[in-house]
Write a structure and sequence with these properties.
With about 400 residues, the chain is mainly α. Helix content is about 75%, strand content about 0%.
C-alpha cells in the first residue's frame, strides 16, 4: 500500500542514509502527496537540499506557504543572508530568538544583570552615575548584540570560517570569529557614550560603562540560553560567563582609558593592542569549552576565570586611583560589597532551585542544587571575597603582581 501514511517518509530516510538522493526525494514528495508525515518529509527534504547546497530547491520550498512552516530558522536565515534580504533576515532572526524566551529565563537574566549592575554602582564612590545613563548603556549593549549574528554568518557562510575540530583552526576561530566579533560589538555603546555625551569623565567610567554594555550583551545572551530545559545553568552563567564578558570588555576599555590618562603616545597602537588582548582573552576562555579537540581540558577555562577576576580588580583599582574626583574621606565599604555579592549571587542559586522545583519538581531541583553546591559555593565565596577588596591610593598605578601581593598582605 504505497498510500500508507508515514511509510514513504521512512523509505525516503533509508535512501537518504544510503546516499541515494533522487530516490529519497521521490519518496519524501510522495509522503507529502499522501498528506502523511508532513513535518518529517518537509524537514528531510530541507536538510537534504541544504546539505547538498541546492539553493534553488530550497528557495522553491521557502516560497511554498506549507513548506515554509517546517523551515528551521537557521536555514531560513542562511537563505535570506545569501539572497541579500536584510529585512527578512532580521525578522527570521528575531522570531527564532524570541521563541526561546520564557518567564523563568527572563526573570533569571534580569536578576543576574541587577546583581552586577548594583555591584558596579557600589564601587563608583567618587562621582556616581545617574541611573538613566546606566539603563541606556545596558539597553544599547543588549540591542547591539544582534550585530553578532550577521557578522558570524558572514564568517561561516561567505568565508567558510567555523569550528572544524582542528586545534589551530578552532583556536583562531574562538579568538577572531567569536572573541573579536563580540568585543567590537560590546564596545560600541561605550564609544557612543564617549562621542555623544559627557558622562564618562573619570577613569573608572571607562571600565564601568564597558561592563554595563557587557551586562546588556550578556542579558540578551542569557535570554537565549535560559530555555525551559536549560534552567539548571542559571547560576553557572551568573558566576562565569557574565563575569568573563565584563572582564573582556574592561580590558579593551582600560586601553582607551590609558590613552587619555597615561599613555598618550601612539594611541592607535594602544587601542589595537588592548582590543587584541580582549579578543584573545575571550577566545582563550571559549576555546577550552567549545572545541571538541580539547574538551578534556575544559578546567583550564575555570583556572583562567579565577585569574581574570584578580586582573579585573587590579584594573578597577587603578582606574579609581586616578579619579579627578578622588576624595580621601570617601571609602569603599568592603564589607557591604562582599555581603552584596555573597547574598545576591547566592540568591541567584536559590532562584535556580525554585525555578527547577516549579518546572520539574523538588527532587530534580534538589539534585541540581547538590550537583552545583561545591563549584557554586566556591565561586560565590571567591568572587565576593576577591571583588570586594579595593585598596585606594590617589594617583597610584599598581601592576597586577603588586596588586596580588598587596591583597595577600592586607588579607
Amino acid at each position: 500500500n504505497q498510500s500508507l501514511k508515514y511509510l514513504n517518509n521512512s523509505i525516503g530516510n533509508v535512501y537518504m542514509r544510503s546516499d541515494s538522493l533522487q530516490e529519497a526525494i521521490y519518496y519524501f514528495n510522495k509522503e507529502i502527496d499522501n498528506r502523511g508525515n508532513l513535518k518529517g518529509a518537509y524537514s528531510n527534504l530541507i536538510y537534504l537540499y541544504y546539505n547538498k547546497e541546492n539553493i534553488d530547491q530550497l528557495e522553491l520550498l521557502l516560497d511554498d506557504e506549507e513548506a515554509k512552516t517546517f523551515f528551521p530558522p537557521g536555514i531560513e536565515r542562511v537563505l535570506h543572508f545569501n539572497a541579500g534580504r536584510p529585512y527578512k533576515y532580521f525578522v527570521t532572526l528575531l522570531s527564532n530568538i524570541t521563541s526561546r524566551f520564557n518567564t523563568w529565563g527572563i526573570l533569571a537574566a534580569f536578576l543576574i544583570m541587577v546583581c552586577w549592575v548594583i555591584y558596579l554602582r557600589k564601587l563608583d564612590i567618587f562621582e556616581v552615575e545617574k541611573w538613566i545613563h546606566i539603563i541606556i548603556t545596558v539597553m544599547m549593549g543588549a540591542a547591539f548584540s544582534l550585530l553578532v549574528y550577521p557578522i558570524s554568518d558572514f564568517n561561516n557562510i561567505v568565508l567558510g570560517f567555523d569550528l572544524n575540530g582542528r586545534i589551530i583552526n578552532d583556536f583562531l576561530y574562538c579568538v577572531i570569529g567569536i572573541g573579536a566579533v563580540e568585543e567590537i560589538v560590546k564596545i560600541i555603546p561605550l564609544l557612543i557614550m564617549l562621542r555623544f555625551s559627557n558622562v564618562i569623565n573619570e577613569p573608572f567610567d571607562y571600565i564601568k560603562y564597558a561592563s554595563l554594555s557587557a551586562l546588556g550583551f550578556a542579558f540578551f545572551e542569557n535570554l537565549i540560553y535560559f530555555e525551559e530545559n536549560s534552567l539548571h545553568i542559571i547560576h553557572g552563567r551568573a558566576l562565569t560567563a557574565v563575569v568573563a564578558h565584563m572582564f573582556d570588555s574592561s580590558v579593551f576599555a582600560y586601553g582607551l582609558m590609558l590613552n587619555k590618562y597615561k599613555r598618550r603616545k601612539n594611541p592607535t597602537l594602544n587601542f589595537m593592542s588592548y582590543f587584541m588582548l580582549a579578543a584573545l582573552a575571550h577566545g582563550f576562555y571559549d576555546f577550552w569549552l567549545i572545541s571538541p579537540s580539547v574538551s578534556d581540558y575544559s578546567y583550564i577555562t575555570f583556572i583562567f576565570l579565577l585569574v581574570s577576576l584578580l586582573i579585573w580588580n587590579s584594573l578597577k583599582n587603578n582606574a579609581l586611583n586616578q579619579s579627578g574626583f578622588f576624595d580621601i574621606n570617601k571609602k569603599i565599604d568592603h564589607g557591604r560589597i562582599e555581603d552584596w555579592l555573597l547574598y545576591s549571587l547566592a540568591g541567584v542559586l536559590l532562584f535556580e532551585f525554585v525555578a527547577l522545583a516549579y518546572k520539574y519538581g523538588p527532587d530534580t531541583a534538589t539534585d541540581g542544587l547538590l550537583n552545583s553546591l561545591y563549584s557554586g559555593t566556591f565561586l560565590i565565596v571567591f568572587i565576593s571575597s576577591s571583588l570586594g577588596r579595593i585598596d585606594l591610593h590617589k594617583g597610584e598605578w599598581i601592576s597586577y603582581k603588586e596588586w596580588i601581593w598587596k591583597k595577600r598582605k592586607i588579607g
